[in-house]
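Render this sequence as a predicted structure.
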Amino acid sequence: MNFPFMIARLWISFSPSSAFPFIHQPRSMSIQAILSIGELNLLVRQTLERNLPICWVSGEISNFTRAASGHWYFTLKDSSASIRCVMFRTRAQFVDWSPRDGNHVEVRAQPTLYEPRGDLQLVVDAMRPVGRGRLYEAFLEIKARLEREGLFDPARKRPIPKYPTHIGILTSERGAALWDTLKTLGSRWPSATLVLYPTPVQGMEAISRIPQALRAAEQHGLCQMLLIVRGGGSLEDFQAFNDEQVARAIAASPIPTIAGIGHETDFTIVDFVVDARGPTPTGAAQLASPELGEVTRLIANLNGRLKQSTMRRIELATQQLDSWSMRLPHPDERLDRQRRHLGFTTLRMRSALGTRISRSQAIASRLIQRVRGPDVLQLNSNLSRLERKLADSWHRTTSTCHQRLQSLESSLAHLNPASVLARGYGLIRDSHGHIIISENDVAISDIVTITLADGILDARIIGKMADRQCTHQ
């Protein structure tokens, strides 16, 4: 039987004030009164709370439990005794570290009695690890100084690469944090190359070795980011990450850094200096790497969007090509217009020459009618001469017009693309319908159309050859 239960079994037949000098007897209770268990426990609780003030108690945590309500229940013990403790949610939320079994702590508590069971317990108001006072004050001093200097300013935080190819890891090669980090990175982003910069993460040696590892990573120049990871521990275990020298070395490093130190509730100076903080080593690895499945889905989505965009562009280009083809006249139509214009010009020339001859003949007839007498023979001779000159002039004029007509027909024949195509040549256009006259107008893999004398071919450019001279037989 425990002590509170033994008290509950006693039958009080003596004066409480004489047996327990520190107990103040209630006015309403007589000396010979028989107490119920509830009354006795109430009396003990009131006596404890009235006569034992809030005090600091040191011991080791065991049987630590976090209830769903947010309250903490645990036992505080030393080498000779133990006592149950409770820390309500309204006070537990201000503890900025994570208590665990085996932690040596100092608690500020009110001794009291839990009346329903008659258990002696401590209602804890505050908790700190043993020795935290000095270390915590040093932590706050360094944190305030670095914050004033701007080392915690979000504006100086560097962006973390989304798809890193090389990731550096600063941690102990024998720690569990390394294997947790490697496992997470291997499952999420196996394509990345991981570079380990081994360094102690606890003790005085870590204070000098961590900056050395940072400088080695900088000189290596390979990693796009650095993970600084360590497993859980006490405040003393995290001293290297609360050191000002280590914090300044991380702030001066040109490589983006992510910290994953301890558990989610553990905070160090390094957590404020780095560019990103993970709650644990595994959480830091998750921040440093994309999830392979998400990247695969993103690539598939982008590929689908690219195909749709390409098909829309091809359809639009085809519609534009059809529109331009309808607006562009065929070479045969241009030749027909030239032929019609040439025929019309020929008719006009023939009509003009006929009119001129008719006028000349009319003038000659009028002159013959007006001429009479002995000069008739001379006039006839002149008329004959004029007729010969007129005939010569007509012959020269018709010959010149005929030659000009033949020249125009020959020029039109040379200008006719169909004639050129009939000799084995082709007319090459790019995807926009522009005629290609130089190899610089196209690129490898471009689609072109080749117009021949009897049809149109589609072709793709697979290569280019340098200019070379050709000998014609």
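Summary. The chain has five domains: 1-51, 53-130, 153-290, 331-415, 423-473. The longest strand covers residues 55-66.
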